[in-house]
Amino acid sequence: MSLTTNTAAAASTAAQLTETENRAPRLGRRNPFAGMSGSKENKALNWTLFGILSIGAVFMAAPLVWMLSTSLKTKEAVYSLPPQWIPDPFVWENYIRVFDDTFVLSGIKNSLIVAGTVTIIGTVFSSLAAFALAKLRLPGKNAIFIALLSGMMVPFPTLMIPQFVMFSNIGWVDTLLPLIVPVILGNVIMIFFLRQYLHNVPDGLVEAAKIDGASYLRIFWTIIVPLIRPAIAAQFILWFMAVWNDYLAPIIYLNTPEKQTLQVVIANMNVQYATQRDYPLIMTASVISVLPILIVFLIFQRQIIESVALTGSKI
Fold it and tell me: Same domain for 87 and 118?
């Protein structure tokens, strides 16, 4: 049954109040630097902080710049002294050769299958679980939540051998299923984060929708998801990054080169091509492995910033 006008108006009012509160000045919280906006001390402090952050940014960006620079060099230019930050000449053929001489293309496909399937489907289930644990009146839901958190205390190395034996007995070794099935139903960290985020959502919205006859799924998709979308986006990119960069689980279950994920392919390239001193090819594959994470971040950067801005505020 669809929501009535009253429920929709209540949801809209809550969203407007949230936006107004975020924009309104915090009364009772005096900014200690408010009177120093034009002082020399404040300008000196700002320039000092800017200098420190700039130095930190250079140190953080230098490895990435060197990786990109090396991917465009010849083999001999990698060992040149002084080091060449700007390749001379630019060897664009490395980006063609990496697909011809390696299994990078199949690794990208397998990584996209695993990361995309796990994070997209898992995010839906994690959001539903967080909504149920935060807003539904379920018997023993706190015990269920504590049990989920307790599962986080078990390190993965203690589960590697039992899981490998189990998946080997059912014939899943050397397939992508062991990387997808165990985590596709949700992420405990995401469930925990979204549950705490949902505590800021007024219970009156859910109660009003229930009185109007809306089902819980209708309430979730119509009211809850728009309110927690920034939090979902922030957790999604963190989870996607973790799955995309995972190396331990794929190296355990995947043996055939055509079925390996990109991180395992790059590790094998490091063994194979390092002896040939073909570091430009290895760096080229590393640059390619960073691009999907960069794309996902650029897509969700606005929601991530909103999530950080709204953390701790009352919806």
Answer: no
d(CA 172, CA 165): 10
Asked if residue 303 and residue 266 are part of one domain, the reply reads yes
Same domain assignment for residues 223 and 107:
yes
Q: Is residue 126 a contact partner of residue 194, using CB atoms and an 8 Å limit?
A: yes
Query: Which tens digit of pLDDT belongs to each residue from 72-88?
Result: 888 888 777 787 788 87
CB atoms within 10 A of CB 173: 16
Task: Give the CA distances from residue 275 to residues 74, 221, 271, in Å, rounded to whole numbers and listed in that order.
Answer: 16, 54, 7
- Give the residue numbers spanning the domain of 50: 44-91
Answer yes or no: do 79 and 205 share one domain: no
Give the list of residues 6+ apart from residue 209 with CB closer than 8 angstroms, or none: 3, 7, 218, 219, 222, 223
State whether residue 60 is helix, strand or coil. Answer: helix
Give the pLDDT of residue 35: 47
Per the domain annotation, does 25 fall within a domain?
Answer: no
Indicate whether 5 belongs to any domain.
Answer: no
Question: What's the whole-model pTM score?
Answer: 0.74
The secondary structure of residue 257, as a DSSP letter, is: G
- Report helix, strand or coil for 149: helix
Angle at 301 between CA 116 and CA 266, to 5 degrees: 45
Residue 224 DSSP SS3: helix
- Do both 110 and 150 map to the same domain? yes
Listed as own residue / partner, the contacts of 96-100 with beta carbons closer than 8 Å and 24 or more positions apart are 97/281, 97/284, 98/281, 98/284, 98/285, 98/288
